[in-house]
Design a protein that fits this description.
3 domains; 515 residues; 9 strands; nine-stranded mixed beta sheet; 12 helices; single chain
Length: 515
């Protein structure tokens, strides 16, 4: 019998249930993994579970509890080849087992199983590395040895190093130390264990007598549905790794110091615009509003301080939850060799990430506070200036209308009769009424207080058209009387006034739109 027997490979992949907007690569990748399982002959239903032909209903919503969406096995051939897709809370995932149960091949079969899996992936259309949008992918290589924990550790570790997939680490010393679980499993994690790695490999050696315990730890327990302890730990570790990648993506889009510098630069620009007011000089309201708008952009824009603060807080909260769950599912381990155990490295990396994110939030918050202080000062100045402006505008409007009313009152009190023919009196009244309607609108428009939106433009245009029509009627009447003719007929009056009124309305509306 070989020194190591029954080599197997467990593939586990996790993706977010609700990925980032329009990012379908993660779910498409998970679907390709399921297709690869089918190409390996894992197509038959088993155990009364949802199958490829009759999968469980699936939605983008968060699953309330663990749910198997599809499960399949391969009935022909030796060993166990099976897989299932599942949903749990905010995660969708896949677990596949390739276990030929061979007693004669030794650890060399790890590479054979990996080659079979890689070939199936290529046939399923996977030609590129996993997308960053997945939470994480893990490959667990297992094998059994006949008698207890191997005593000769250096030869065993060298055998694991020789047969494990390449780690890609610059300092390839991962195999010099490993962790022993309470069941006697020896566990190596290949490579440096960077939490930002999308794919991570584990090698697990277990005593032959503990084969059932190993299956329950990494694959399944008979009569139960749900993720096993190692898989559940890896799911939460994958969440922490995903958030670590998101953090570095945020930092690469716009580094923290650039966000703070942009915010402080616009805060200082706004304070400079307010500076004349400190010495009693008039403040340019236009400059203040322009500087405030630029400051708001640094706070509320896509890369603004406010967005960054809230994103970092969400990220820290997610990692905190992942760390709590990782602690719940961390196995009791005994370290053999130098360095910390792989759960200790995972937890330390996650806690360092939380500390870094919290520091970033503090730095961004201080920049946000400076911006808010400058914005508050600008608001006080602009409110005071706008109040003065509105008071002055109200005075102008009141004075203008008051002068017209005073003139009309004086005319009435002195019984002054305008030398107007009776036929010209009604057009004159309409002209005065149109002037009284249009004058406040003109004042508001020239003062840039009235909005230039469509409803307000039509009010201005209609008032101008009314004035044009009434002036046309008065002018036409006076011109006819001056020539010694009778007043214009109703048909002539309506036609001329309508034409002039429409022309004036259109001209004013077009001019207001250009402004």
């Amino acid at each position: 019998m070989q020194r190591f027997v029954k080599p197997s490979l467990i593939i586990t992949c996790f993706v977010p249930a609700t990925p980032e907007a329009e990012d379908t690569a993660a779910h498409a990748y998970l679907a390709r993994l399921w297709d690869a399982c089918g190409l390996l002959g894992i197509t038959e239903a088993f155990g009364g579970l949802p199958s490829r032909e009759e999968p469980a209903p699936e939605s983008d919503a968060v699953a309330a509890e663990f749910t198997i969406l599809e499960a399949a096995t391969r009935e022909d051939g030796p060993g166990i080849h099976a897989a299932f897709r599942f949903a749990e809370h905010d995660v969708r995932g896949l677990v596949a087992l390739l276990a030929p149960n061979d007693l004669d091949t030794g650890l060399g079969q790890w590479n054979t199983l990996l080659d079979q899996w890689s070939t199936a992936l290529t046939a399923a259309g996977v030609t590129d590395p996993p997308p960053d949008g997945i939470l994480g992918e893990f490959r667990v290589f297992t094998a059994l040895h006949p008698a207890g924990t191997p005593r000769s550790q250096p030869p065993v570790a060298e055998s694991v190093r020789r047969h494990a997939p390449p780690s890609g680490a610059d300092d390839d010393t991962w195999w010099r130390g490993h962790d022993v679980t309470e069941h006697g499993f020896s566990v190596w994690r290949t490579g440096p264990g960077d939490p930002r790695d999308v794919v991570t490999d584990f090698c697990v050696l277990a005593p032959l007598r503990a084969e059932g315990a190993l299956d329950e730890w990494v694959w399944a327990r008979e009569g139960e549905n749900g993720l096993r302890p190692l898989t559940r730990y890896l799911m939460h570790a994958a969440k922490a790794g995903y958030e670590a990648r998101r953090y570095h993506t945020l930092a690469s889009e716009k580094p923290l110091h650039k966000r703070r510098a942009a915010s402080d630069q616009e805060s200082r620009a706004l304070l400079r615009a307010l500076q004349p007011g400190a010495s009693g000089e008039p403040v340019s309201l236009k400059d203040v509003l322009a500087a405030a708008a630029m400051l708001d952009q640094t706070q509320l824009g896509p890369h603004g301080t406010l967005w960054a603060i809230t994103q970092h807080r969400d990220l820290a909260r997610t990692v905190n939850i992942a760390v709590t769950n990782m602690r719940l599912h961390t196995p009791r381990l005994r370290r053999v060799g130098a360095g910390p155990s792989w759960p200790e490295r995972d937890l330390a990396a996650a806690e360092n990430l939380i500390a870094q994110v919290q520091n970033d939030v503090e730095y961004l918050s201080t920049a946000r506070e400076r911006a808010e202080a400058a914005r508050t000062a600008a608001t006080a100045v602009t409110d005071r200036a706008l109040n003065e402006y509105r008071n002055r505008l109200s005075l102008v409007q009141t004075s203008t209308l008051g002068s017209l009313l005073t003139a009309l009152t004086v005319v009435q009190s002195l019984d002054y009769d305008l030398p107007l023919p009776k036929s010209a009196q009604l057009p004159t009244i309409l002209v005065l009424a149109a002037v009284a309607l249009l004058l406040p609108l003109v004042v508001l428009r020239q003062a840039a207080v009235s909005a230039a939106s469509l409803p307000y433009r039509w009010i201005d245009s209609a008032a101008a058209g009314l004035l044009g029509s009434s002036v046309c009627w008065l002018a036409l009447t006076l011109w006819r009387l001056h020539l010694g003719h009778a007043p214009p007929t109703p048909v002539m009056t309506v036609s001329a006034c309508a034409a002039v009124g429409l022309a004036v309305t259109a001209a004013v509306h077009r001019a207001a739109r250009r402004r």
